[in-house]
Amino acid sequence: MHILVFGASGGVGKSLVEQALTNGDEVTATVRTPEKFNLQHPSLHIRRCDAFETADVAALFADNCHYDAVASALNTNQGIKPGNDLQRMLSNIVPQLQKHRIQRIVYCASAGVDNELEGERGQAAMEFLRHPLADHRSAIEQIQVAGLAATIVRPLGLTHGTFSGNYIEAVQGIPAGSGRIARADVAHFMLKALHNDAYIGQSVALSGV
Questions:
Q1: Which residues contact 85 (CB under 8 A, 6 or more apart)?
Q2: Three-state SS string across the chain, please?
Q3: CA 73, CA 9: separation in Å to the nearest integer?
């Protein structure tokens, strides 16, 4: 499988690239500064791309590039402030997927994006994160309106912990796990979802055990 990874320089994205290459996949990793991306592999293609720039994204699909699937591990610098970074980036990506008839996408969002966090603490967390969650929802809406074969990933608290491959999934609500999960394990699930059509159309929450 040839996977186009957006946000490849981040914690989840870089781990996804590494795991996909180990799995035998071909990967095109998009980064703003290729010289700072220190991975090398015969099946890895590194492309400079600012996803805010329509021309940059379009250029990824030139020269008869054939991607089987797309993974988005894009993040935002807006923190908890109002913003539309993710919506803007997906507004450049989604039309290219439609134009080039690429259906499969796995999008890494955040727990709370489905308004699924219960209880007083859950409601407080979603209120605190209301702006980034709204931005994720706007990005996801574009994917859904386009009719793409999507899997939405909803990790709980992200950590820099080592890869374990041991985590809990929940399609409804959130799993009864630790409430935290290593970025490498989120990447593991994203790769698994890309290779398993059973996850198409699902929104999956992830937690460490």
A1: 52, 76, 77, 78, 135
A2: CEEEEECCCCHHHHHHHHHHHHHCCEEEEEECCHHHCCCCCCCEEEEECCCCCHHHHHHHCCCCCCCCEEEECCCCCCCCCCCCHHHHHHHHHHHHHHHCCCCEEEEECCCCCCCCCCHHHHHHHHHHCHHHHHHHHHHHHHHHHCCCEEEEEEECEEECCCCCCCEEEECCCCCCCCCEEEHHHHHHHHHHHHCCHHHCCCEEEEEEC
A3: 9
Residue 64 has pLDDT above 70, yes or no: no
Kindly report, residue by residue over 75-101, the tens digit of the pLDDT. 988 888 899 999 999 999 999 999 999
Phi-psi sector, 79: left (phi>0), alpha (psi -120 to 50), beta: left
Dig out the tokens for 88 from the structure.
């803007």
| Contacts of residue 147, Cβ cutoff 8 Å, sequence gap at least 6 | none
- Per residue in 113-145, pLDDT (tens digit) is 999 999 999 999 999 999 999 999 999 999 999
Which token pair is 203? 């929104």
Give pTM, 2 decimals. 0.95
Q: At which residue do the structure tokens 């980034």 appear? A: 132
Q: Among candidates 127, 139, 122, 24, which has minimal Cα distance to 73?
A: 139
Q: Convert the pLDDT of each residue in 1-30 to its tens digit.
A: 999 999 999 999 999 999 999 999 999 999
Whole-number CA gyration radius for the chain: 16
